[in-house]
Amino acid sequence: MAGTGIFTEILDGEVYKYYSDGEWKTSSSGKSVAIINPSTRKTQYKVQACTQEEVNKVMELAKSAQKSWAKTPLWKRAELLHKAAAILKDNKTPIAESLVKEIAKPAKDSVTEVVRSGDLISYCAEEGVRILGEGKFLLSDSFPGNERTKYCLTSKIPLGVVLAIPPFNYPVNLAVSKIAPALIAGNSLVLKPPTQGAVSCLHMVHCFHLAGFPKGLISCITGKGSEIGDFLTMHPAVNCISFTGGDTGISISKKAGMIPLQMELGGKDACIVLEDADLDLVASNIIKGGFSYSGQRCTAVKVVLVMESVADELVEKVKAKVAKLTVGPPEENCDITAVVSESSANFIEGLVMDAKDKGATFCQEYKREGNLIWPLLLDNVRPDMRIAWEEPFGPVLPVLRINSVEEGINHCNASNFGLQGCVFTKDINKAILISDAMETGTVQINSAPARGPDHFPFQGLKDSGIGSQGVTNSINLMTKVKTTVINLPTPSYSMGHGFISRL
Ligand code: NAP
């Protein structure tokens, strides 16, 4: 159970503590933030509402802890990360339980998220040892006009304090995808978890605590993003921000100082279906891509662009599969569970009603109870409908019928988002041309969009992000190149003995 066993010390009465200076603490604010269970719509947990002074303290500690951490041998940093990964995986049950309660993620998927996160930490430790254990050696005589008198040594150095802000939908996985690369690279880390998902994150942080990381190196500040977010992101001690979430990321980018940013933001991933596609494969991928975790995934299929000639057949196949989706509590592993909040459910409903008013075809009856929205496929959606462009982040999927591949590509490219997309066809040559034409960070051929496996590069174009994720890219983003140049008085060529006599 959450907050019990090895996790007892992270709880103060009914409020979870925050983590600073290697200790679990109660905020001096005397205030807490409620975490509402999306299924019951009742308060499930409470976390500390941290103050600006507490943020200042954490930043000060992070700055000083980083200096010694950067001098800790790489293999020792990796060893601690492996230890944290093992503790996390051993304690998957209480962490998964809190994911079920605070973000209504189906129980099985919640366990998968924790295990996947442990694997990601370990992979990052291994990859970090290789990437950071190597540098470059450059010789000056490759550039015109130079003799071989300069030896240039390059290596990667940490940035300092990394601020990590993950979203509610994968709070543990998207937190460790920032924490592990930051730490292996010699940075310190301040985590601001999403409010819905904070308790799962606090449990995860405790696994790092138990692994024995130095005091002050990792901290976790809780509180509403709208209240402490600006203070954190504009804090002068922060040397890098790794953020995953919605449009908030765009405003953070505008306010942040001259520091590297890793922004993984929203998406409107298109699924382009050609006439020769295997429609059974497409239908399964639309179900998996559009309705897993009730559509609350950045890489969910968010618009289907299907050739008119096969649209009727595809819609029938998808409808048949939608009818089989189970709807209900996450504890029972239902496919469709309550969306994260009432405001999210209201937003989704607004998109549905707009589509209704403008004449979309409802393949199922629209049904909602509290935050629970039944899966809905909307056919004959047109570009004048909001749902053709906006991200519902819920179990509602629009189908636009197209008369040419160009029409599909144009729709995809007219979006302000550019996260992922997918194309279904048996013609690999066409698939490559379409993939190249789509203005998105990734295109999947004959499969639904997906972020994983977690070591693949993952990036969004346009409003979908800045920088690239994936283990290697994150490590690189959280480091800077440092060079040392050795200057020789006379040119020296390997194996050239001629000059020795001149010494
Ligand atoms: P969100 O509302 O943007 O929140 C993301 C995080 O930002 C939360 O931790 C939130 O804290 C915090 N926050 C809010 N206001 C802030 C501020 N002013 N300064 C700093 N931090 C602030 O997003 P969400 O609803 O959690 O997640 C859904 C969105 O994430 C969707 O748009 C989805 O597409 C996107 N997403 C993208 C990716 C990707 O990799 N591209 C992956 C997953 C999700 P509070 O919870 O306390 O408000």
Written description of the protein model:
The protein is α/β, with parallel strands linked by helices and 503 residues long. It is 38% helix and 21% strand. It has 14 helices and 26 strands. The strands form seven sheets. The chain has a seven-stranded mixed β-sheet with strand order 16-19-20-15-14-22-23, with helices on both faces. Strands 11-10-9-12-13-25 form a six-stranded mixed β-sheet, with helices on both faces. The protein is globular and about 85 Å long. 50% of the residues are buried. The site of NADP nicotinamide-adenine-dinucleotide phosphate (NAP) has 27 residues, from helix 7 and helix 8. Keywords: Cytoplasm, NADP, Oxidoreductase. One of its GO terms (cellular component) is cytoplasm.
Q: Which radius of gyration do the C-alpha atoms yield?
A: 25 Å
Quick check: average pLDDT?
97
Sheet with most strands: strand arrangement? 16-19-20-15-14-22-23
Structure summary, number of beta strands: 26
Quickly give the structural class: alpha/beta
Question: How do the strands and helices of this protein lay out in sequence?
Answer:
Elements: E1 11-12, E2 15-16, E3 18-20, E4 23-25, E5 32-36, E6 43-48, H1 52-69, H2 74-90, H3 92-103, H4 107-132, E7 136-139, E8 150-158, E9 161-165, H5 171-184, E10 188-191, H6 198-211, E11 218-220, H7 225-233, E12 240-244, H8 248-255, E13 261-264, E14 270-273, H9 279-291, E15 303-307, H10 308-324, H11 342-357, E16 361-362, E17 368-369, E18 372-373, E19 376-379, E20 396-402, H12 405-414, E21 417-418, E22 420-424, H13 428-437, E23 442-445, E24 461-462, E25 465-466, H14 471-477, E26 479-487
Parallel strand pairs: 2-6, 9-10, 9-12, 10-11, 12-13, 14-15, 14-22, 15-20, 19-20, 22-23
Antiparallel strand pairs: 1-2, 3-4, 5-6, 7-8, 8-26, 13-25, 16-19, 17-18, 21-24
Helix pairs in contact: 2-4, 2-6, 3-4, 3-6, 4-5, 5-14, 9-10
The structure holds NADP nicotinamide-adenine-dinucleotide phosphate.
NADP nicotinamide-adenine-dinucleotide phosphate binds at residues 165, 167-169, 194-195, 224-226, 229-230, 233, 244-246, 248, 252, 264-267, 298, 391, 393, 419, 460, 465.
